[in-house]
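Quick one - inputs below.
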Amino acid sequence: MSMSNANFPMDAEGRTYHVGIKRGELANRIITVGDPARAIVLSRSLDGVDHNTPAKAVCSNLFSHASHRGFLTITGRYKGTPVSIVAIGMGVSMMDFFVRECRAVVDGPMIMIRLGSCGSLSDAKVGDICVPSSSYMVQRNYDYFADGTASTASAAPYHMSKKFDADPEVIATLVKNMSAQLGDNHVWKGVNATADSFYSSQGRQDLNFVDDNQELFTELVKYEPETLTLEMETFVLYHLARTSTVAPLKEESRLTAAATSNKHSIRAGACMMVFAQRKSNDFISKEDVARVEPIAGKAVFDSLVEVSLGDESELHATEGS
Ligand code: R1P
Ligand code: URA
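Output:
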């Protein structure tokens, strides 16, 4: 694969370097998930899908592209509206690749909703759905662990960022549609914490490493009493949506953060299925994942097509190619 433009690499066909998609292959309305198998489960709700397609395959009448870096993009229509599903793998860097590369190849406003899994710090049980209206980032403070520093450092071992908000209408629509599918008592609102590790910065105890995280849950709840969930991507989605510009800036009119308007080209939201109940130590069963995933997926698709994008500049995404 030969690429040009070191600043934003693309190949001769206009495919982005990591997600591997080009203009015309992606809808303005996107569900993003971690697991490619979840993307395939969700794709079964798209219009015109052949339900005899083998379980692990994408139906041949949908557009799909698997990139060399592990991203899987599927595009079709839901109730007549073009939508895409993009599986990104795990972690904040993958979310950053996804948001920036998808934004680069689509014209007009976009909506991106993450359907992920999470750990619950609240009373939400395994199989319940959490819909966070904002997210902060929990990062290991690497300096704290530098040789000879930990015992004397006054800094804390983990750093919590400021919160960034989701789009309120997207969140309200997700809560409504999730409640319709699962019942009010299985849908939770609150704040998400995105961690830079599944282990240390999510308070998991691992005696093979010095993590100094025994008090982390207490610290998180003290920092933000409405902390509901711990996972690994949502903060970057909310953060980038809130720093997205209405139209690509011209170099000469580059905005500073302080001057950025409150209008953005990306509307973002997220919801997570509770896989790990961190207070009771329960973990979800395979059967519960298989039960909840498609139902939650339908609620996300319903929300994705219900929220207005502001104008009708939606791409007519490729179908059947
Ligand atoms: C960790 O097991 C992964 O699960 C969660 C975390 O954010 C992390 O990516 O989300 P997904 O199920 O979407 O991957
Ligand atoms: N994903 C996470 O990041 N953490 C959990 O505990 C479960 C899923």
